[in-house]
Amino acid sequence: MRMTRRRFLQAAAVAGTASLVPLYLSRNAYAGFEPKDFFSPLAIPPELIGRVERGKRIFDMSLQQGTTRFFQGYDTPTAGINGSYLGPVVRVNRGEKVVFNINNQLGEASTLHWHGVHLPARMDGGPHQTIEAGKIWRPEFEIRQPASTQWYHSHMYHRTGVQVYHGLAGLFYIDDEPGRNLGLPDDYGVNDIPLVIQDRNYNRDGSFRYISNMHEQMAGIQGNDILVNGIVRPKYNVTQKQMRFRILNGSNARSYNLEFSDQREFMQIASDGGLLEKPVRLKQVRLSPGERAEIIVKFSDNENVMLQHKPLPGGNKMQGMMGMMARMMSGDDRPFSVMRFISQKPEGQVMKLPEQLATLPAWTADQAAITRRFELNMQMGMGMMGGDRGGGFTINNQSFDPGRIDEVVRLNDIEIWEFTNHSPLAHPMHIHDIQFRILDRNGKLPPLNERGLKDTVLVNPDETVRVITKFENYADESSPYMYHCHILEHEDRGMMGQFVVKA
Ligand code: C2O
Ligand code: CU
Ligand code: CU
């Protein structure tokens, strides 16, 4: 099948109509999540280390279209960075200056946003840094934050969902000396493995099926088939006794509550912004869209274990109309498999993890100059289903307006941002530029693995989450940063605001 620009754009033209025949190439309705199917070798994305010239590390990245063979006999039109689907793991070091040549060969306008990275607003790659088709964008900034697993993705307003769905995303690793000196598994592709988890739907011709009905437009799109690093139902042959997995939920709208099929324990060592203060022992880790977790897992001889999604118990307790909407919109939430791990005779040492991994900024509520409140709402009545532009879910009853600055922050202020969710869906709220710490969820301390640095936090229905952060280093009154829900269909339909930092 020849890849044409038209095919990719078609996906967008279809969005908003409800006319596609609901027949999927992928096995529908969870049949594809049977563990017996998981045999395709996991792909490990290439690393991109760039080249150093005159003291700066330079990366060439090209946004392009291509086709990807997810299923035998079908070439799916996709998009990627320096490849046909997703992009390389960009590796940078703390303290260095980095320059990117972002060459947009997509055939349509796009942007490339550095999610989780602390940088000047003009370099952020948000909706204001549009790269027109055929143009090159050259952001340049310094890496001023600790070792961590960040990522990059398209942030083109109204097009983020469809572009990321087709593949415009990748990982961005920051390395530093303290991180290296801990002796954690860090041999890329050997005992340090990225896992980018996404869910997709397909049409009968093998093309991705993006939004095709009102429900998907409202709730965000949830796929019937899982990809890990762009591979359908993969298996990974573990060769080392102690493994580190850097997991990114790169899905548009689906949250995962991950566990191993044998309920083994693992240690979470890092969250969005880098290492936790101490490793946290877990059996499950929940990741909403945009969130990352680094975990350390032990393997022994002759193991065959699945990573799987286990729905959280309890479900939705909202009453009345909201409760009904909630149950309707959250859709099916049965358990399913994500990928398989096989270990025959794994090698290497199992080291005892350091008790202390990092020292984190200890911002306290009484240091905060201000508490900003953000009410997450669903607009009822006319336009409730969102339409293609605006409406649907809002922040403080407003839809995104690129010409409106919603918040003005003073440089070097510590602030509390308080998100209250009055809507029947959980929203993963994300703030650009900074990493925050969660003060509380409905007044209670968050779980141990949510006490590190974060840039995205899931706010459940009826929940108030307070986060605290400091806005440092970069002020630019004329260039805003975004904050938004990371369900990309919500962001594209206006569940986003913008703030500037003022000196
Ligand atoms: Cu990952 Cu504003 O985005
Ligand atoms: Cu971001
Ligand atoms: Cu949302």
Give the radius of gyration: 21 Å
| Distance between the ends | 54 Å
What ligands are attached or bound here?
A: CU-O-CU linkage, copper (II) ion
Task: Work out the oligomeric state of the chains in this entry.
Answer: single chain
Lateral arrangement of strands in the main beta sheet:
15-14-13-17-22-19-20
Task: Give the strand content.
Answer: 35-45%
Q: What shape does the CA trace take?
A: globular
Which class of secondary structure composition applies to the elements? mainly beta
Mean pLDDT: 90
Main pleated sheet: 7 strands, mixed
Low-confidence stretches: 1-6, 9-32, 386-391
Helix content: under 10%
Query: How many H/I helical runs?
Result: 6
- The total of beta strands comes to 34
List the helices and strands and how they pair.
Blueprint: H1 5-14, E1 40-41, E2 47-48, E3 51-53, E4 56-71, E5 74-81, E6 89-93, E7 97-104, E8 113-115, E9 136-137, E10 140-142, E11 148-153, H2 160-166, E12 169-175, H3 177-180, E13 192-200, H4 214-219, E14 225-228, E15 231-232, E16 234-240, E17 242-249, E18 256-260, E19 266-271, E20 274-282, E21 284-287, E22 292-298, E23 303-309, H5 320-330, E24 336-347, E25 370-378, E26 393-395, E27 407-410, E28 414-421, E29 427-431, E30 437-441, E31 456-459, E32 464-470, E33 481-485, H6 488-492, E34 496-502
Parallel strand pairs: 1-16, 2-6, 4-7, 6-12, 13-17, 16-24, 25-28, 27-34
Antiparallel strand pairs: 3-4, 4-5, 7-9, 7-10, 8-11, 11-12, 13-14, 14-15, 17-22, 18-21, 18-23, 19-20, 19-22, 23-24, 25-26, 28-32, 29-31, 29-33, 30-32, 33-34
Describe the structure.
With 503 residues, this protein is mainly beta. It has six helices and 34 strands. The protein has helices at residues 5-14, 160-166, 177-180, 214-219, 320-330, 488-492, and strands at residues 40-41, 47-48, 51-53, 56-71, 74-81, 89-93, 97-104, 113-115, 136-137, 140-142, 148-153, 169-175, 192-200, 225-228, 231-232, 234-240, 242-249, 256-260, 266-271, 274-282, 284-287, 292-298, 303-309, 336-347, 370-378, 393-395, 407-410, 414-421, 427-431, 437-441, 456-459, 464-470, 481-485, 496-502. It has a seven-stranded mixed β-sheet with strand order 15-14-13-17-22-19-20, with no helix packed on it. The protein has a six-stranded mixed β-sheet with strand order 1-16-24-23-18-21, with no helix packed on it. A hairpin with a 2-residue loop joins strand 14 (225-228) and strand 15. The longest helix has 11 residues, at 320-330. The protein starts with a helix and ends with a strand. The model is unreliable at 1-6, 9-32 and 386-391 (pLDDT under 50). One copper (II) ion binds at residues 393, 427, 485, 487, 490, 495.
